Amino acid sequence: MGERKVLNKYIPADFDPKLVPRGKKKGNDDLIPVRMMLPFSIQCSSCSSFMYRGRKFNSKKESVKGEKGKYLGIQRFRFYIKCTVCSRPVTFLTDPQNADYEMESGATRNYEVHKDKERTDEEMVAERAAEEKEDPMKALENRVLASQREMQEMDALEEIRALNMKHRQIMSGRAAAGGSAGAAAAAAAASGGSGGDVSAILDAREAAAARAAAQEEELTETGLTQSEEAMLKTIKFGSGSAAAAASGSTNEPHEVIHRLGDDDERELEERRRREAALLEQQQKAVADKAAEAKSRMPLIKVKRKRKEQPTAKEEDAKKSKVDGVAQKKKSGQDDSDSDARTGGGLAGLLGGYGSSSSSD
Known about the structure:
The protein starts with about 30 loop residues before the first strand and ends with a helix. It has helices at about 115-135, 135-190, 195-215, 225-235, 240-245, 260-295, 310-340, 345-350, 355-360, and strands at about 30-35, 40-45, 50, 55-65, 70, 75, 75-80, 90-95, 100-105, 105-110. The protein is flat. The longest helix has about 55 residues, at about 135-190. It is built from nine helices and ten strands. By secondary structure, the protein is α+β, with helices and mostly antiparallel strands. The model is unreliable at about 355-360 (pLDDT under 50).
């Protein structure tokens, strides 16, 4: 056997490396190994096992040939994987048109809710566009409803802005009061002196509190200041909806935002009272009907068979029977006692076996 680990190999003088035949490379040059994850959940067509989205595979990638190989100049690719249970080849393609993947063979793609939702939304938009195209009045109604919705949103946004402005004014007033008190305290501290410093700081705080109290406005009956009420009066709640209703452009019901007053509260209270009375009447009517039905129901009397008392003759027969059974039991017990005394039975028969008299 020749040496395996030889450093110096013999090369003849007439050796030409160009004459050495080159071996053919096995496999397809178009297939490229790619480590990838499943873009969607699938079920194998052979063993019905599931492979879920995000599972990693050592796949093979190749370019799609033919007419379906490109979409608007974008190259499509085919991926080969194997089932994890039965090793069946599974192939799927890229789908540039829908920015997705397309199942080709070996398995079926599972149901996906978001796909149906997108498809349903697209169908609804297309159906609405076709309906508006066929019916101009429907298109006009849709535009009016959209404008009303936009006006309501603008009113709500304006309300939120007013509340934010109110909070901003309150915070700015508090910050100004705190800043004036701090400045006065700093000035008193810079003036010098131990006893005078404390009195100066207290005087500054009292002056700042007095200015803040003077700046505060008195609250009205509604619990707001005059400036806040003036601001709320500038806001026209439901102005867009009221304008749309006044124009008479549509017969659809519109919603108007307004405050509840005393009359509205009384009306609501009266409505609740009427509803409670109506409910009480209905409950009373149901109870009366149930009582009437119960009274109309026929009474069913069940006759029970009385137990017949035994006659004197039957009692005597039963008593004599019981006495006979007791007498028989007593006589049997007496016989067994006499046999035991006389050595009767099996013990009497075997009593003399093996005695001295028999052996003699």
